[in-house]
Each structure stands twice: as structure tokens, then as C-alpha cells.
Amino acid sequence: MLQEFIAEEFTKARKAMGISQRELAQRCGLPQSTVGRIEAGLVVPNLLTLAKTAEVLQLGSAEGTARHGMSGRGIERRNARKFRYTR
Predict the structure, then answer these.
(1) Which long-range contacts (CB under 8 A, 24 or more apart) does 65-74 make?
(2) What's the pTM?
(3) Where in 1-87 does DSSP place strands (E)?
(4) What is the CATH code for 2-86?
(5) Regarding predicted confidence, which is higher, 32 or 54?
């Protein structure tokens, strides 16, 4: 369930930004295969990968989540080192 949620939201956000998996991977410093596996729902990203991709996809702000149709769900940055999942 978590894998499917993350896959769906990341894919939706990436497409809303109009960037490819390859471009997202480059911006995050990840292999394209990792982005592809996340979006396919094959893996749940570790916290560092989740934070990097969420930041690039602008999933940490109310404005970013609204822009991607996420109804306020996403990663909220609490300070430089802590993130929490919000509904």
C-alpha cells in the first residue's frame, strides 16, 4: 500500500512538472533506474531518497502539494534534518 501510494504521487508530481524520470534522477543525484523502480511501486525509497525527491518535486509545501493535486499529503520539512509524513 505504501509503495503504491508513493509510486502514484511521485509519478503524478513528476508529470505535473513536465520532467522525465531521467531528469528527476539527475536533479536528485540518483540513478534513473531507482526513480523508475519507485514509480513502478517496486521499492519504498529510504528516507534520504524520499527527502531528495520530495524536495525536487516540491512535495513539502502546501503550495506544491496543491499544485500536484495531493490534498495536503506529502513530506513536511520540520527542520534541516527531520521530515514527517502528513495527511
Answers:
(1) 67/16, 68/9, 68/12, 68/13, 68/16, 69/12, 69/16, 70/9, 70/12, 70/13, 73/9, 74/9
(2) 0.66
(3) 74-77, 83-86
(4) 1.10.260.40
(5) 32
